[in-house]
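Per your request, structure below.
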């Protein structure tokens, strides 16, 4: 999943999906899903002002704000300056409640619980000129959850 902020004749921001540009913290091996990282770049010749970004469940409408990595720290989008041309952008969606024993950490969600809400979702990004929406389905998550989402072979009912 790649978010490229770029100028073109028709729009200032290009959005496209690609699994190599996303990362999932946690998953089946850890038994918890903590966050989703979406990487991109400002490929335009101008700086870009990000106004906001969120992830919205296509299952039940749950909406979470996305945060951004700035100077090796995860911060709300309204706390960053203009994104300069060529700058790498990494947006973060955090899942679960805050960990009461560790400031800045989250408890995450069990994979089954995560998939109940987040197996289909939208990424919304707004910059200084327009809003963009990108749709993700179960196929987008299949590499992270083999056999749990997306098409798969099932046995006949007896």
């Amino acid at each position: 999943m790649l978010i490229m902020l770029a100028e073109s004749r028709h729009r200032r921001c290009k959005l496209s999906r690609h699994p190599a540009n996303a990362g999932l913290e946690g998953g089946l091996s850890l038994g918890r899903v903590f966050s989703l990282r979406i990487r991109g770049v400002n490929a335009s010749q101008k700086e870009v002002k990000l106004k906001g970004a969120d992830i919205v469940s296509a299952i039940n409408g749950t909406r979470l704000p996305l945060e951004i990595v700035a100077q090796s720290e995860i911060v709300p989008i309204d706390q960053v300056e203009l994104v300069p041309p060529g700058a790498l952008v990494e947006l973060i969606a955090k899942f679960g409640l805050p960990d009461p024993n560790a400031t800045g950490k989250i408890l995450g969600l069990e994979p089954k619980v995560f998939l109940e809400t987040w197996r289909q979702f939208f990424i919304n990004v707004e910059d200084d000129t327009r809003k963009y929406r990108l749709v993700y389905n179960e196929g987008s998550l299949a590499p992270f959850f083999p056999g749990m989402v997306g098409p798969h072979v099932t046995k006949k009912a007896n």
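The CA atoms of residues 7 and 56 lie 25 Å apart.

Regards,
D.
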